Amino acid sequence: MMKEGLKVQTTPVRDEDESFLFALFTSTREQELQAWGWDEAMQQHFLQMQWRAQCSSYSVQFPQAEHLLLCHDQQPVGRVILNHSQESLHLVDITLHPNFRGQGIGTRYLLTLQQEGSESGQSVILNVRTDNPARRLYERLGFASTGEDELYVRMAWHSKQK
User: Fold this and answer.
1) What is the secondary structure of 72-104 as a DSSP string?
2) Which parts pass through the membrane (predicted)?
3) How far is CA 23 from the centre of its chain?
4) Tens of pLDDT, residues 106-129
5) First to last CA, the chain
6) Burial of 137 (0-12, 13-18, 19+ CB in 10 A)
7) pLDDT one-digit tens code per residue, 59-75
């Protein structure tokens, strides 16, 4: 449920945000790592390796993408990677810290992105893991599946002005 008057801001990522971004990344992997039974040192090594791989992959695949902090009440609560093209706004990644999920922050950001797409005549596209509960949110906001593979569903929202 989205809170009335909820304010969500974005701000460009700076070098000094690296520790927050790494902590955010690790927060999304905690359950997975606990299931493996690794000690703390092994977990940290694995997480650092995965973090560097993700950063490298995104920078190669989307060199012009915007890297943004998602903020609520001036506090960073997530991150967004957004790649602009002539025909679409590609939401490469949106991650909210688990403590801030379910409060309408992601919904508010997506509605803002859809408004931007509507004003510019662009579609909003994204990929979501097939098992990610956020898929229901995307569907509720009018995103439709455009294809899938074993891991991901490609989804798009099209402006009514197109």
Assistant:
1) ETTEEEEEEEEEE-SSEEEEEEEEE-GGGTTSS
2) none
3) 15
4) 999 999 999 999 999 999 999 999
5) 29
6) middle
7) 999 999 999 999 998 89
pTM recorded for the entire structure: 0.90
Give CA 21 to chain center in angstroms: 12
> Which of 54, 80, 58 minimizes the C-alpha distance to 69?
80
- Distance, CA of 36 to chain centre: 25
- Domain 8-157 annotated CATH 3.40.630.30: yes
Question: By the 8 A CB rule, do 100 and 64 touch?
Answer: no
Question: In 22-151, where do the E strands start and end?
Answer: 66-72, 75-84, 88-96, 123-129, 144-148
pLDDT digits (tens, 9 = 90+) for 8-30: 899 999 999 999 999 999 998 87
Computed on alpha carbons and rounded to an integer, the radius of gyration of the chain in Å comes to 16
Residue 117's φ and ψ, nearest 5 degrees, are -65, -40
Structure token pair of residue 90: 């590609």
What's the angle, vertex CA 141, arms to CA 8 and CA 29, rounded to 5? 65
Residue among 83, 90, 86 at smallest CA distance from 67: 83
What count of Cα atoms within 13 Å lies in the side-chain half-sphere of residue 92?
21
